[in-house]
Amino acid sequence: MPHSIKVAAKMMHELAQEYVKQGHSVSVVTPDYNLKNKMQISTLDGVHVVSFKSGKTKNVGKVKRAINETLLSYNAWSGCKQYFLKNPHDMIIYYSPSIFFGPLVRQLKKLWGVQSYLILRDIFPQWAIDNKILKENSLITKYFKYFEKVNYDNADVIGVMSDKNLEWFGQYYKTDKKLEVLYNWADVQKVESESSKYRKELELEDKVVFFYGGNMGHAQDMMNIVRLAIGLKKYNEAHFVLVGAGDEVELIGEAINKNNLTNMTLLPAVNQDEFKQMLSEFDVGLFTLNRDHVTHNFPGKLLGYMVQSMPILGSINPGNDLKNIIDEYEAGYISVNGEDNVFLKNAVKLLEESERVRVGNNANKLLYSKFSVEAASQQILVSLG
User: Fold this and answer.
1) pLDDT tens, 69-80?
2) Residue 195 clears pLDDT 80, i.e. is over it
3) Among candidates 183, 215, 297, which has minimal Cα distance to 4?
4) Which of 82, 84, 256, 298 allows an S-S link to 261, with CB 3.0 to 4.6 Å?
5) pLDDT at position 165, please?
6) In which band, very low, low, confident or very high, does the pLDDT at 296 lie, cut at 50, 70 and 90?
7) Cis, peptide link before residue 97, omega less than 30° from 0
8) What residues pair up with 299 in beta bridges, in sequence order?
9) C-alpha span between 165 and 58 (Å, rounded)
10) Phi first, then psi: what are they for 90, rounded to 5°?
11) In DSSP terms, which residues pair with 93 in a beta bridge?
């Protein structure tokens, strides 16, 4: 933050801001590959940001990423040791992914004599095994599983994102640690659109814009959205805007050219302010999950859609209980990845303005009911006693 549009960055910053609002002093420890020195301290919205120099972990080759992530805890301790020694804290909250902060958390718990809360949002390497990216018994998988165990073992409480994930994780990771559901959260303050900047720039004033923002990788299966765009080509009012970065960006670009998708615009990642402005201008919030997932992900990007009263259009892995929550509030339309006809029919329903307004208002009500940052902050404090 403030340059990242990653949901993890946004959520953790909003949580930190909420604790500052409650009167706490908060430090966020985070890697920054652009740093010239080993450490830098800055302040953002009242939050102490302690940045340490580290190698790139996004938009690099898999081997280089694995090496740089493995070194996260080492680089954090090496760069920030004096800060940690001089500034003891009363509680540690950490977020996964990455799985490689476990050694740092272990060191800090020992140094300060405190408890820790793990916000678990991506069960790696299991999802990579499910998607045939890793072989279950390979050496690299065992390597990742070792660090995964260190990550979990150093948490006093682990918060997963849904009831189905709680059930699954309780069987996957046998432990006497406290496990609970901690829903994703968002600051509920809506951003008002000051102009139609992006609609004008992209010449989309008369279009119904289906917007996707965030990671574009294997875990999402972005070809799912490409197939939807192909199906909607005959609807002149429909247009797709995809913003972000990831392993499948090049694949999307090739598909746009191959299929002559004049109804799809692919843009690079933008900063948070630009991202929020886009959310305020566009019409439908999109998400997609790879159907091979065994775990039950709740994409954080949905919260941004809910804040702006955008109806949600999504495609999930079979059995994901996200559908039950969205359906209960009539906050969007959800289908299973592979049900292309249902995905298409749902998209067509949202071409109707009155339906978008109705469903979008319901999405905003769902946000207030279950996914506020105030509720998440209090739950974490209570859980750690």
Assistant:
1) 999 999 999 999
2) no
3) 215
4) 256
5) 85
6) low
7) yes
8) none
9) 26
10) -95, -10
11) 117
